[in-house]
Every structure is written in structure tokens, then in C-alpha cells.
Amino acid sequence: MIACRRTALACTCLLVLALTTPCSSSPNEIRRGPQRGSAGTPRPEVTGGRGSRVPVRFTGRVVAVQDGDTISVLVGRRSVNVRLEGIDCPEPAQPYGRVAKLFTSDHVFGRTVDVEQTTIDRYGRIVGRVFVGGEDLSNAILVAGLAWHYTEYSSDRALAAAEQSARAAHRGLWSQANPVPPWVYRRPRARVAPSPGSALPATPGPAGPFRGNVQSHVFHVPGCPNYNCKNCTAVFATREDAIAHGYRPAADCHR
Asked: Which residues are annotated as catalytic?
């Protein structure tokens, strides 16, 4: 009787151990299910930079052009902002800023493009190279003389050569005597110091903002007859800033 009880107890212990021990081919192996998001659905595989949820390479249709180097691409039902890698176009208020935007729009708006993502910038935009019909858009914009090679973030030799060819041919913005890089223009207030002899004497003058005609490179003060002219899209905080960007005072309102 005692032997039977011991046998039953042993069987019970073995059954408990079998139910509580995980089935694993190795004692150190832990089997995990797919990672899940907050909604309980499996997360897609992630490649790219800074939390990106899009593949390194993807195809979509361009549905908007913000400026020369930023576009919106429709991928499935989602629109993503793409910043062209390796270049920096003039800001819209700068000379050739609107020309750069029109160039990009003519090349890709409404068309299907291939994007090779390199990273995500601090604004949450995809940064990558965009190809349309096999053509590298960053390179095409540089060859047209409508951007700078953004050497702070790119060491691409092909892009460097494209900029140099445009410089040598004085194409686009390189037809100007002293084009101001957009990263300099974006600095607050006086963005670049006037060259010696180009600045007016430091005497009190009218307050800005000043508007410059992107065709004639003449700038106007508030109250000038042509202050709101069709081509007066360049805006400067000071007279010195306007002069530094290659603009001259309008004769009809500067005294």
C-alpha cells in the first residue's frame, strides 16, 4: 500500500513538471512572437534612419512640390515628404528660388519616381535620392545651376562635379556675381556681411522689411510705388542685407 502511494505521488510530480517546463530545443532558447505595436498588430520590419517606417527604396507618385529640393510622394495611401539628398536650393524668396521650384515641378510633378532613402532629418522628412526615368534629380538640378552641392552633409563626387560644371558655364544662379548660399540666407537678421565698398554709409534709414525685384535686382522700402510689384518676392530685413544679396536701391523712393 505504501509503495503504491509513493508511485502515485511520483507520477503526479512528473506530470506537474511536464506541464510547467517550456518546450525548447535548448535550455537557453527563448521563443518570442512577433513584436507588436500599441494596437496589437505586428510591426513591419524597419530600415532607414531615426524611426523610419518606410523601406530604403520605394516608388510613388509626386503629388506636391514645396520648393526646389522638397517634394511630397504618395506611397499607397500615405503622402510622405522627401528632401532631396546632397543639394540645397535657393529659398523661395532668394533669386532663382522660384525657378528651382519650377524646374523640379516640371521634372517630377504627377510622375512616378523611385526614392532611395538615406536618413530622416530633424523635421521628420525622408532624405534621399529621387530618380525619374532613371535620371538623378539632385544631379539634374545641380547641372542646371539651381542648387548648391550641400557639402556639410554630402561628399558625393558626382554632385560636386555637377556643381562645378554649372559654375564654369555660369548657368542659373551662377550667373550672379555673388550668389548667397541658402544656409547663409537662413541665418537670422543680417545674413552676410556686405563686401567692402558695397554698403551704404551707416546713416539712419527707413525701416524694413525691404522687397527686392528678382528680375531687376532693385529693392524697395515700404511705401515705394513698386513695393508690391509682381516680381518683388525677395524680402530683406535691412538695406545692408539687400545690398549684400546683390540688390540696389530703387531710385524712385530711396533718398
From this structure: 83, 91, 125
Q: Does the CA dihedral 146-137-64-106 come out positive or negative?
A: positive
CB-CB contact of 161 with 146 (8 Å)? no
CA distance 236 to 12: 87
Helical ranges in 109-255 per DSSP H: 137-143, 157-169, 182-185, 239-244
Q: Where are the domains of the chain?
A: 57-175, 191-255
> Which residues, in sequence order, are CB contacts of 227 under 8 Å at separation 6+?
211, 220, 221, 253
The grid cell for 93 is 524668396
Joined together, the cell numbers standing for residue 223 give 511705401
pLDDT at 254: 56
Rank 67-71, 241-245, 248-252 by mean pLDDT and report only the highest.
67-71
| 0.70 exceeded by pTM | no
Q: Are strands 210-212 and 218-220 parallel, antiparallel or unpaired?
A: antiparallel
Region 104-128: what's the mean pLDDT?
Answer: 95
Per-residue model confidence (pLDDT) at position 251? 76
Answer for the pair 90, 148: CB distance below 8 angstroms, yes or no: no
Q: Is it true that domain 57-175 has CATH number 3.30.450.20?
A: no
User: Which H or E run includes 9?
Assistant: helix 2-20
**Other C-beta atoms lying within 10 Å of the C-beta of residue 141:** 27
